[in-house]
Amino acid sequence: MHAGHLGFACGAALGFLGDLALGDPRRGHPVAAFGKAAHAVEQRLWRDHRGYGALHTLLCAGGTAAGAALLARALRPSRPATVALTAATTWAVLGGTSLGREARAVGGALEAGDLEVARERLPHLCGRDPQALDGQQIARAVVESVAENTSDAVVGALVWGAVAGVPGLAGFRAVNTLDAMVGHKSPRLRRFGWASARLDDVVGWPGARLTAALTVLAGPDRRGAWRVARRDAGRHPSPNAGPVEAAFAGALGVRLGGTLAYAGRVEHRPVLGGENRPVEAADIERAVRLSRRVSLLALGTAIAARTVGSLCGGAVRSGITSSITSRRSSR
């Protein structure tokens, strides 16, 4: 096996296992360090202008991807170093274990009847106003967050890792983090965060579609997942959250979407899986397990895609080299 895709396969698998075993550290996480740096750049650049926001995105996301590319290139002669870098980057950008841990914490509080604890834990998962939610609405918010973040925190990163290796992994996480920081429709960030939000839509597109497809394959109700995803995905205001949440709604047999509140702003979103029952606290555990199955399938898909792509590329390069050699010999 070619050293390039062997390094990615081993490194991605080790990084995935590292996330399973360790999750995210409470202090010193590389993504948190990136967030602090991006915030410092934002403080210097902020203007109520799309151009300055685009520059902020270019410096932060582009700089991260370029730095990762230079480091990967420098370590390329050493296969162990390449594997180690891929493993460390994969671990740093994945968040599946922490996602499941936080979701289960809220689910456990709901099942114990402790609504106040559930409300305290919900902000660890999403930005909704927990005081405006009852137990059923909190459970729905958690399932929706698990669905969306399966794509954002796991599958999307693996997709770009398969496409571009370490720079793809790091660049995707940088873009996704910037969107979470400044990609809001608040008056202050509506223009400045526009570039980050639109870029996140672009880079998140393939991961969201793969997540939806794998949810259909891995879900307990494949027909339901396929039916709801086909019918309802386009109703969601987000081009990437729509397919994922609709597939989860169908796979779990629950109803997602509807009214929600963000920092005092109320949104009325279309219902996904309207024929299904409302979400219950027990569905949180089912959603976490489905997320884990989808993540494992995504890892296998990313490794397979990277391997096939490298083999095909090698075959093409070999054919071109042979053709050039043959022409020179015939002269």
From TrEMBL:
Keyword Nucleotidyltransferase: no
Protein topology in the membrane: Multi-pass membrane protein
A Gene Ontology biological process term: cobalamin biosynthetic process
One GO cellular component, as annotated: plasma membrane
Pathway: Cofactor biosynthesis; adenosylcobalamin biosynthesis
Predominant subcellular localization, coarse grouping: membrane
Cell compartments where the protein resides: Cell membrane
Alphabetically ordered keywords of this record: Cell membrane, Cobalamin biosynthesis, Membrane, Transmembrane, Transmembrane helix
Keyword Cell membrane included in the entry's annotation: yes
A GO molecular-function annotation: ABC-type vitamin B12 transporter activity
Function noted in UniProt: Converts cobyric acid to cobinamide by the addition of aminopropanol on the F carboxylic group.
Family: Belongs to the CobD/CbiB family.
NCBIfam families for this protein: cobal_cbiB, PRK01209.1-4
Identification of the protein by name: Cobalamin biosynthesis protein CobD
Organism: Streptomyces albireticuli
Gene: cobD
